[in-house]
């Protein structure tokens, strides 16, 4: 059964993990509502339970008419000590939900660690993507300037590296808006940096290009999936550092005469 992390919309610290049965008990105790947020691992964002139809049906099932429930309660009345045991169970569960027990205190630390990593990720990757865009567009600066001056901006499409650089710029802008839905695209983009950088470094017999491309690719990939604050700092350092070096190499014309050859005649000047 899936585990869920939850938090209230106005409180950043999360609680969990809980399964659906535990969430049902918390709902019956009035500790959570349909507006309580849960972390959707597919969307990689916090979403109200009400928007997850399957989970909402399990945690907040439709109630039967009061009269029918009253009859059922009388028929299924437990021994006198049952309410006490049930109350103790809910009390213990609420303590665990708040990570106040010895067994769950480590979960609170993990949640805080995860939230710190999640808050650092978008802005850090955005910086790395801006540097990547700079590294890819710098060798084409004159070509782009000439195309704009001649009113032939569409001819830029003939240079696929320019399009990738513009893509990186757009991704950076979206990340600065905290749109983490683009993470799957960034993972694919990171693998392109990894593979193409290795090939380019090998073909130019330049190990620095290969090394920094590997750093940038691995850093961006793991920055989109890491839940550890320490690991997040490490991979963001790789991503930003790798792309910063590539930007510098582009600025000193290390790629001169190489990128310009990657050309497809799609639109005539």
Give me the count of strands.
4
**What integer value in Å does the Rg equal?**
27 Å
Strand order of the largest sheet: 2-1-3-4
Shape: elongated
Description:
This protein is mainly alpha-helical. Helix content is 60%, strand content 6%. It has a 4-stranded antiparallel beta sheet. Strand 1 (4-7) and strand 2 form a beta hairpin. The radius of gyration is 27 Å and the shape is elongated. The termini are far apart.
Furnish the topology, listing elements before pairings:
Elements: E1 4-7, E2 15-18, H1 20-28, E3 37-40, E4 45-48, H2 53-59, H3 66-75, H4 82-97, H5 105-137, H6 141-149, H7 160-176, H8 183-203, H9 207-223, H10 229-251
Antiparallel strand pairs: 1-2, 1-3, 3-4
Helix pairs in contact: 5-7, 5-10, 8-9, 9-10
Keywords:
single chain; 269 residues; mainly alpha; 2 domains; 4-stranded antiparallel β-sheet; 10 helices; elongated
At a glance:
With 269 residues, this protein is mainly alpha-helical.
């Amino acid at each position: 059964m899936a585990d869920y992390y939850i938090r209230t919309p106005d409180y950043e610290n999360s609680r969990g993990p809980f399964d659906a049965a535990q969430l049902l008990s918390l709902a019956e105790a009035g500790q959570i509502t349909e507006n309580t947020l849960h972390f959707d691992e597919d969307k990689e964002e916090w979403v109200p339970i009400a928007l997850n139809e399957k989970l909402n049906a399990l945690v907040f099932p439709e109630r039967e008419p009061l009269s029918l429930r009253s009859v059922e309660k009388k028929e299924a009345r437990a021994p006198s000590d049952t309410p006490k045991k049930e109350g103790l169970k809910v009390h213990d569960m609420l303590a665990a939900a708040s990570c106040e027990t010895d067994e769950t205190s480590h979960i609170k630390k993990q949640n805080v660690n995860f939230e710190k990593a999640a808050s650092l990720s978008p802005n850090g990757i955005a910086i790395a993507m801006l540097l990547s865009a700079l590294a890819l567009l710098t060798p084409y600066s004159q070509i782009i300037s000439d195309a704009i001056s001649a009113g032939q901006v569409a001819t830029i499409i003939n240079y696929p590296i320019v399009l990738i650089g513009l893509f990186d710029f757009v991704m950076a802008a979206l990340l600065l808006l905290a749109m983490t839905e683009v993470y799957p695209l960034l993972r694919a983009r990171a693998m392109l940096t990894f593979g193409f950088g290795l090939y380019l470094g090998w073909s130019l017999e330049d190990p620095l290009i290969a090394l920094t491309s590997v750093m940038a690719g691995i850093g961006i990939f793991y920055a989109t999936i890491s839940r550890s604050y320490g690991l997040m700092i490490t991979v963001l350092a790789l991503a930003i550092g790798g792309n910063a070096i590539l930007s510098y190499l582009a600025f000193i014309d290390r790629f001169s005469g190489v990128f310009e050859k990657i050309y497809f005649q799609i639109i005539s000047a």
